[in-house]
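subagent[fold] <- orchestrator: predict structure for attached chain, return tokens only, no commentary.
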Amino acid sequence: MKMINRIAAAGLGLLFTGTSVFAQSLDDAKKAIDAEQYQKAKSMLKNLTVTQADKDENFFYLGWVYLKQDYPDSAKTVFTKGIAVNPKSALNFAGLGAVAHMEKDNADATTNFNMAISLAGKKNATPFQYVGLSYLLPVSGQAVGPNGSAVSPADANAAITVLTQGAAADPHNIGVLIALGDANRSQLKSNEAYNAYSSALAIDPNSPSANVAEGVLWEYADNIDDAVKQFQKALAANPNYGPAYREWAETDLRAAKNDPTQYDAKVKEAADNYKKFISLTDYSPESQMRYADFLIRTKDYVALQKVAQDLAASAGSNLRTYRYLGMSAFENKDYPTALTALTKWTTQADPKRLIPSDFLYLGRTQIALKNDSLGILSLKKALTLDTSQVDIYGEIATSFYGLQKYQDAAEAYKVYTDKSRKATLNDHYKEGFSYYEAFKTELIAHQSNQNVKVDSSMLVQADSAFTYIERKIPTKPIAAIVYFHAAVKDFEDSGDRNNIKGLAKPFYEQYVQLNESAPGGIPDNAKAHMVDAYTYLGNYAEFKDKDHTKALDYFNKAKAIDPTDARVTYYFQTAGKPSK
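subagent[fold] -> orchestrator:
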């Protein structure tokens, strides 16, 4: 694979120990799993399931590797074989529960977890450990962040409960203690996590995994120096412990965001550390995908697209490759490639594996390629997967607005401006304008067909949007907003000129003042709207105030702009007299 070869050729000087001949013991396979050398572990365990086919543990750990590599179907098959070998295999029942949990089958997960615990015995803490870790695995359709997936409070609490039981069964089981710390850390329970990690380090101060775990806790607290010290301790104990470099890279990224003056240097250091991690794990497609996740966080989309293209070209690559290819191609404005990749991913992947951003990127790509209708459907699909993604409404609204589908745009802008902190005054303006245009469309349709109903509440919504803007910038009125607010009020006013209420009058007066006082006179792009303002104010003066002189003045101003306007010609034919 080209990208992997480039990483390998970077002269890192870091070598596997004992990779030329795989040790064939379960303990060595478990050490490889801990070091995230999944390909190495998988090769060893596949061999062990043949040479030691009567040992159910071999099947469990092979299945666990499949889970870590995002192959739940393969994992389930192997766990089932483990139970066939030993019907009372607590670990393999824990594995089946893990698969069910990842697939959101809570009932099946609970059944298998309970079976695992009941078969574990009073002093065997390992099944407790893996039931707890199973609750911390990402469920289908959930994005994975830099330090793993976002764990729900319910799953974290379930993990904490079972891991606490495991710690009671065997207080010296370091794996249980680290997992207990991870479960607490997922909910930002820093004191509880620290106590668990400290207990693990008290048992084995040189444990690489415990030192790294405590380092991540310091990273969460933005204590960058102490985090790095823990990673260095892990590497002092085992210079080839790759996860220490990965978490060091994540800490570098956090430091970069916290100190803009060090951003470039820290991002480069993060990339170097992540390459060291890759060199110490393996050069498998799964490792490349972990590297791809890192590149997303550094926003290095050029490198990401190269990695994804290499992955896509390899035989039997994970379908998730096309998520990375589609995302990076979109960010690099390679829209045709993005569309092909994202279409393949969203149509061929198990629906349970899809996340909102998959459809978000697909929708953005379709819109960029001028296929707005399909793009909007994709954006709406993203919302069905996660209704909390309110910012998507802004993109939906923008698309509808561009298509002049104003009622749909108005409704989307309404949700966006109500719920998103990113909404701008321009979004509020487009919300008001969309409601105004949608009302006009209904009114015109009603005039042609009395059966068409007109929703006057749209005027209320438009009024509210424009009022919001005016209150935000009371000393800097914007002429366009003042005009459309006046137009909304004009619709709200009585259609009978003899009973005109004047709801729009102060807005049109303000609009006239803004444009008449503009440097260089009335702007050309405002003249048509000024005719609306003059004719409204002229009618108000004529029919409400009975001030014929003022009315004539307003209509003369309108006539000077557009003598052919129907309202102007009607006035001079019926009520007014031409000025001399």
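orchestrator: received. Logging for downstream: Residues 292 and 334 are 18 Å apart (CA to CA). Confidence is low (pLDDT under 50) at residues 1-23, 144-148.
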